[in-house]
Amino acid sequence: MTVYAQALHAALYGLPTQDEPLPAALDALLQATHTATAPEQKTAVLRQVAEQLRNAAEIIQRYQYRAQWDRLPDDVAKQLADAHDQAQQIAQALDRVAPAFSSPPTADNAPGQQPTHGRNASAPVPSPTSPAARHR
């Protein structure tokens, strides 16, 4: 029944169904977040957003070069360079976290537990003021 309701909802509002490819436009991706119920769909939406951010970073970089070519004030090119770097960082962060939506939580990464990341759980973690932490 839920699947039927979701398909009807998607058809009524012109949203993508599970069989259709993800939209490229960010406003359409925003709508897809409302209908993405399967873990793989959620991961795919985040990956598509990351791809769009990479495209946005390229556009921003072209305008940065254009600002330099047109001899606009230096702060314009600098702000565009900063925006370019931030867009790339966000895209990389989304690439890292997207797979988590396809993987159900396990005992190792259940909510409320600190991940051990391969570290011995009983091994002490150096405090920020310890000599070991200062040499990192």
Explain briefly what this protein structure is.
The chain is built from 5 helices and no strands. With 136 residues, it is mostly helical.
Description:
This protein is mainly alpha-helical and 136 residues long. The protein has a domain of 50 residues. The chain is built from five helices and no strands. The protein is elongated. The termini are far apart. The C terminus is likely disordered.
Q: Strand pairing plus helix content: what structural class? A: mainly alpha
Rg, nearest Å: 21 Å
Q: Which residues sit in consecutive blocks of at least 5 with pLDDT less than 50?
A: 115-136
Number of helices: 5
- Describe the global form: elongated
For the termini, the CA-CA separation is 55 Å
Main sheet properties: none
Mean pLDDT: 76
- The ordered string of helix (H) and strand (E) elements is HHHHH
Portion of residues in beta strands equals: under 5%
- Tell how many strands the DSSP assignment holds: 0
Share of helix among residues? Answer: 55-70%
Biased composition (Polar residues): 103-119
Region (Disordered): 96-136
